[in-house]
Design a protein that fits this description.
Blueprint lengths: L1 E3 L5 H12 L5 E3 L8 H11 L13 H5 L7 H10 L8 E4 L2 E4 L16
Parallel strand pairs: 1-2
Antiparallel strand pairs: 1-3, 3-4
């Protein structure tokens, strides 16, 4: 599993703590320092099962407006996230061909088998 993480984001930190509390320790991807490629983002869109790429974007960021992304094609949105990773919603947990956005952080648990004995 991989976890797209921004240590400065409280929801991202909460999600990581929640996963650890449930025995899940994914590989951490600091996507702001190691931006995802367009191919990786395209795979992520598929893994999330979304058709509207804005569902995985931070549309309230000033960059979204400055880049004129309102109403843009999915291809343009993916290119924008590859070039400006700040636009990617966080956190995101990826497990092969499945992924989930951790908003709220409890959503992350929908992707993992949690043993509650």
């Amino acid at each position: 599993m991989q976890y797209l993480h921004n240590p400065r984001c409280s929801k991202s930190r909460q999600g990581l703590e929640l996963l650890a509390a449930n025995g899940v320790h994914p590989d951490i991807v600091l996507y702001l320092k190691e931006p995802l490629s367009e191919a990786q983002l395209t795979h992520l869109v598929s893994a999330l099962g979304i058709t509207d790429v804005t569902q995985m974007m931070r549309t309230k960021e000033p960059e979204f407006t400055a880049l004129g992304l309102q109403g843009a094609s999915n291809e343009k949105l993916i290119r924008a996230m590859a070039q400006t990773p700040k636009l990617i919603e966080r956190p995101i947990l990826i497990d092969g061909d499945k992924a989930v956005i951790g908003r709220p952080p409890e959503q992350l648990l929908s992707l993992v088998q949690v043993n509650r004995s």
